[in-house]
Amino acid sequence: xxxxxxxxxxxxxxxxxxxxxxxxxxxxxxxxxxxxxxxxxxxxxxxxxxxxxxxxxxxxxxxxxxxxxxxxxxxxxxxxxxxxxxxxxxxxxxxxxxxxxxxxxxxxxxxxxxxxxxxxxxxxxxxxxxxxxxxxxxxxxxxxxxxxxxxxxxxxxxxxxxxxxxxxxxxxxxxxxxxxxxxxxxxxxxxxxxxxxxxxxxxxxxxxxxxxxxxxxxxxxxxxxxxxxxxxxxxxxxxxxxxxxxxxxxxxxxxxxxxxxxxxxxxxxxxxxx
Length: 274
What we know:
The chain is an alpha+beta fold. It has helices at residues 27-35, 73-87, 171-179, 217-230; strands spanning 2-9, 12-18, 45-53, 56-63, 68-69, 94-99, 102-112, 117-124, 129-136, 142-149, 153-159, 189-197, 200-207, 211-213, 237-241, 244-249, 258-271.
């Protein structure tokens, strides 16, 4: 039996499993089995966790398809919420999490226990790197975008319609084509951004290893970077995804992104895995 906690951040859901509990298991196979929506528990990935200090830990992320990812902003915040509950954290406390993209520090803003356990926190998301890039699809369509790293690879496409379509084609179709494009041998996350106002954007997300998803912390951070650096938006910037809104603050090139948003624990249990 594998003990787990399930958490979500704006509908982006993760299982948290300790390295000790998963010892001896094939983590990729365990992730595929438990994340399956119909025959498993259902999640966008598993964060494998180990404590490294009183309020510090390390995580290894596997996407729902079993592939390894450097980091998930929302997944990291879910783990920080789990840590906060375990350690009785209060507003103002900081939790340190080492990811494959480096150290991330999460600051607790509010804690709610009215209906479960939920935390709003601000997490450092690292210093983004970015550059314009055009990807030519197999059918010849050239898609102009911005390639960004927020600890993991992102490709941002700015659109001008409420359907997030590109050249009249659904964003899910274009997202899949870019995600698996030969230009990205390790695949890439893809976000479609619509500018609502100088202080608000709306996004859709095609996530590497998952597909269309309700939210993404690194995707929200990358989308905000594109909007702030190339589209005259202003910080702090509200980023609205289907699962809810998060806020990104950024002082510009060379500065660390700050992502503020909620996360909540959903359930605890045990899963059969042989």
